[in-house]
Amino acid sequence: MLRSWQFWTVMAAIGALTGLFAFAFTTDPKIVPSPLVGRPALAFALTELNSGERLGLADLKGTPFLLNFWASWCVACRDEARLLEAAHRRWGASAERFRVIGIAVQDTPDAARKFARRFGKTYFLALDTAEGDISLNYGLYGVPESFFVGADGVVRHKQIGALTAEVIENQVTGMLDTAKATQ
Amino acid sequence: MNAIRRPPPPSHWILPWLALSFYLGLAGAPVMALGERELEEKVQAITVQLRCPTCQGISVKDSAAAFSRQIRDKVRRMVREGQSEQAILAFFVSRYGEWILRAPKKEGLGLVLWVLPGAAMVFAGGLIGYKLLRGSRGARDATQGEPAAQLTAEQRARIDRDLRRFEEQI
Q1: In Å, how far is A96's CA from the nearest CA of chain B?
Q2: Can you state the angle between helices B66-80 and B85-96, rounded to 10 degrees?
Q3: If one looks up domain B9-103 in CATH, what number appears?
Q4: Could you tell me if A112 and A153 lie in one domain?
Q5: Which of A6, A118, B83, B148 could pair covalently with A2 via S-S, beta carbons 3.0-4.6 A apart?
Q6: pLDDT tens string B38-92
């Protein structure tokens, strides 16, 4: 028969292991906490792929926006391409209450334009620098990745992997409601 | 009659000139190579501490992924700008979180991760040592004690009986 201290040592070890397994199996490995969430969005300067229009963070003051990092070679980016365009047409194109901004990373202008034409993208598209300055500044793990930024310029949500219609709906309506409430 | 002074043949001046160029080249080369080598050593010392964002368990230094290459270039630029190792690591932690560091920080919860394996080993070693010590002491006590004194008269009689039977069978 185990003595009392031996019994409790074994029980503590079993409890710790059970806790560890429970944590591992109930945690989604795709959800990686970003230190950027809850902090002001970081500055960027972009040039539109087709029109050459310039856009910086300062130009977006007071407007909630979605910063989507993508690439023409990225398969998962195809899944969300039409959802992003739909979000742009629903909240951005006519109402100008919300903006979708796509930044192609590790890509070429021609390949990015071809991809945009194929999926009918009409929102603001730009290329990251060859050095990946914006990607590294935003702590990218890969593509696609998206940042929802509120009207106050604070990052509300970071999505790793392809966006879904539900995530876009929830985030955009949430940001628009907050913007309306603070006006 | 004036003697015509001919210029020295090329073999007279080309060789010293080449030797001088070669010497100056050699003299200058180590300075340049050392600077670049030191820079690369610093870059490697920093990038080995960073986790490749798109790989599994590989450092940025050892990864061939495009993101790792960009991080290496960024670190190289930051080192050239004169930024310290701490400042560069802090930059990446502020963008990626503590996750980007391959070794946890030696403070807060990270300190527990550093101390726990050592503490567990010391505890296990102490436990094994204690058990071994107690086992050997128990064995010594068993040999040095007086077990016969603890036997009842009936047990002694049974042992004697069994021994006699054993001796008869031999």
Answers
A1: 30
A2: 140
A3: 1.10.8.640
A4: yes
A5: A6
A6: 999 999 999 999 999 998 889 999 999 999 999 999 999 999 999 999 999 999 9
